[in-house]
Amino acid sequence: MKRKKIGRFFDKSLLVVTDPTGTRLHLIGLTVPIFFENVCANLIGLLQTSMAAYYQDGYFVLITSVPNQLVNLVLSLLAMVSVGLSVLLSIRLGMGEREESRRLLGSALYVIFGLSLVVCAMAIGFARPFIQWMGLDAQSGQFEYAVLYFRLRLAAYAATYWVGVFTAALRCYGYPKIGFAASLVSNAVNAISTYAAMFLFRVPPASIVPWLCGITLYSEGIKVAIVCVFFAKRKIPVSFRFDKRQAADIFRYGFPASVANIAYTVSQTVTGAILVGLGDDVYKTKQYVSQIVYFVYVMGLSIGQANSVMVGREFGMDDKERADRLHRQNLRCVVLINVALSLLLALFSEPLMRGLFNADDRISELSRAVFFIDIAVEAGRGMNHVGQNGLNAVGDVLFTTVVSVFSCWTCSVGGAYLFAVVLHGGLTGMWCAFAADELFRGFLYYTRWRRGKWKTHEFDRAKVKRGNLS
After folding, report:
1. Those residues with Cβ within 8 angstroms of residue 461's Cβ, 6 or more apart along the chain or in another chain
2. 183-227 pLDDT, tens digit each
3. Quick one: CA dihedral 20, 22, 28, 30, positive or negative?
4. What SS3 state is found at 158?
5. pLDDT tens digit string along 290-317?
6. In terms of Cα–Cα distance, which of 367, 361, 325 is closest to 349?
7. Per DSSP, what are the bridge partners of residue 17?
8. How far apart are CA 183 and CA 239, in angstroms?
9. Which residues pair with 26 in a beta bridge?
C-alpha cells in the first residue's frame, strides 16, 4: 500500500523524455547544469555585494546594488528572445521539424542583435532619470558613481546578450552543461579579479567603478568565447537568413512570457525604491536577504526551467497526458524542496548575515523575522516557477502574463507600500506582501493547469512547415 502511494507521488519513468530525433532528455541531466548556471549567474552579485560591504565600510553597496536592479530589468526585457526561442524550439524538435528549427535559431540571432542595440541605447541615454526614479538622491555623493556604474555595466554586457540565444538552443538540443561551464569560468574570473582589485591592489574609490565594469567586460568575453566554441563543435544547425514569420513567432510567444518576468523585476525595482526612503539599513537588509534567498529557490527555478523544456517536447510529440503527469510531479517536488531549504535558512540566518555581509545588530534583527516569513514566499515561488514555465512551454503565455502583471502591481507593489509605509510595517510588512503575491499567482497557475484548458491548444503541423506557428 505504501509503495503505491510513493509511486503516485514520484514516478521514475517521468524523468526521461525521448523525442522523434532520438534526443534523450533527462530531468536531472537538465536540472543540474541549469542549476549551476543560474547559481553562477547570480553568485557574482552576492560576492560583489559581500566585498562591497567590507570595502570602504559599505559605501559602495548602494552604488552597485541600485543600478544592478535596473541592469536586471534590461536583461529581463532582452530575455524575451531566448524565452520565445525555447518555447518554439522545444515544440518543433518534438514534432521532428529540423529545418524549421534551423531557421528559427537564425532569426532569433538577428532579433536579439537589433533589440539589444535599441534597448541599451535608450537605457544608457536615460541613465540619470532612471537612477533618480530608483530613489537615489541626485545631490548625494553616490549618485554620479551609480550613473557611471549603470552605463558602463550595460556597455560591458552589450556584446554578450546574444549568447543567451546560443545557450537556450543548446539546452533544447540536450547540451545544458555548456552554459554552466561558461558561467562557472566567467564568474570565477570575475570574483577573483574583484577581490584582487578591492583588497590586493587596493584600487582607490574614485577608480573602483571603472575597474568593476572592466572586470565584467573581460569575464563576459571569456563566457562568449566558450559558448561560441562549443556551439560550433556541437554543430547545432542554424540558418543565418532572417525570416519575418519566425521573428514574429518569437515575439508572439517570447514577449508575453517575458512580460511576466519583466513585471516581477519592475515590481522588485519599485519596492526597492520604496525602501530607499526608509533608510540605508532597511534597503541594505532587503538586498542582503534577497541575494541569500535566491540560493534557496534556485533549485526550484532550475527544475521549472528543465520542466519547460521537457513538457514542451512532450507537447510537441502530442503526448499531453504524460506532459500533465510530468508537470504535476515536478510541482510537488519543487514546493517541498523550497519549504525545506527556506526553513533551514531561517534557522541559521544570523551567522550567514554576519559572515557574508558584516551585518550589525540592527540589520541582523531586521532580517530575522523576514527569513521566517520567506518560508511562505518560497512555497508560492516554487508553484510559480513550475506553473509559469509549464504553461509557457505549451504556448499558454497570455494567461501567465495577465496574472503576473496584475499580481505584481497589486499584491507586491501595492501591498508593499501599504504594509511597509502606510501601516509602518517596514521590511517585514513588505515581505508579507511578497508572500501574498507569490501564493496568489501560484494558486492561479495551478488551477489553470489542473483544469486542462492548455490541452486544447493545438499546433498545426502544416502551418509549422510554412513558418507560421499558431
Report:
1. 95, 97
2. 889 888 988 998 898 888 888 888 888 888 888 888 888 988 999
3. negative
4. coil
5. 888 988 999 999 999 899 989 988 888 8
6. 367
7. 25
8. 26
9. 16
